[in-house]
Amino acid sequence: MKRLTISTLLAVTLLSGCSSTDEIVPDIPPSELYATAQQALQKGSWITAIERLETLDSRYPFGAYSEQVQLDLIYAYYKNDDLALAEATIDRFNRLNPAHEKADWVLYMRGLTNMAQDRSFLHDLFNIDRHDRDPEPSRRAFRDFKRLLERYPNSLYASDAKARMVFLKNRLADYELAAADYYIRREAWVAAINRAQQLQRHYPDTQAARQSLALMETAYQELGLQQPLEHTRELMALNPQ
């Protein structure tokens, strides 16, 4: 059997992810249209659900279902990996409903959407660990979850947000560690020390912070700085990896 190439896998995935019927959504009452959208959501038929919900949103933008349609669209876009559309719908919903009773859920979904942007299809497919890729989406997600806990400490989503913040903190710390290691390999000793200190300052309770001490030890040794070298070794003894 022929081996699948990466380009073939990408093509298959893009086709399956973007496949949609050319069916025209029937002109039926909004209650029936909403019911079919809900059925599609419950079945996990995200593309069908999105078609129905978008039709409702365009045909009846100020109807009885308008707010819930937008909330459902946020969820369906997220599940279908249409992350830019999910983010745009979140922005629109917040603009139109600044004090909505489900504002905590919308903020939680913003965190999930940003978090999902910090992944790659190929990385997931081949289980590739790339801590050195730009973590800006993770930074935004961390801020979203932090804001959720500050504004809505009793939210149903607070517990999950806390757990995700731990994961994100480690993700961001690993990125800083990768940057410090890069400077070590380039023999940029001062830059490596600065990056390691930044990591230890912002993410002190992570494994990456402990690992960065070894990089600092190398840099101080190369620079011939005896006093900070001894201090770093003391810290390494107190914080074994």
Features:
241 residues; mainly alpha; Serine Threonine Protein Phosphatase 5, Tetratricopeptide repeat; 12 helices; 73% helix; 0% strand
Summarize the structure.
Belongs to the BamD family. The chain has 241 residues and is mostly helical. Helix content is 73%, strand content 0%.
Describe the protein's architecture and organization.
InterPro entries: BamD (IPR017689), BamD-like (IPR039565), TPR-like_helical_dom_sf (IPR011990). By secondary structure, the chain is an all-alpha fold. The protein has a domain of 71 residues: Serine Threonine Protein Phosphatase 5, Tetratricopeptide repeat.
Give the helix/strand layout:
Layout: H1 6-18, H2 30-43, H3 46-59, H4 66-79, H5 83-96, H6 103-116, H7 121-125, H8 136-151, H9 158-185, H10 189-202, H11 207-223, H12 226-238
Helix pairs in contact: 2-3, 3-4, 4-5, 4-6, 5-6, 6-8, 8-9, 9-10, 9-11, 10-11, 11-12
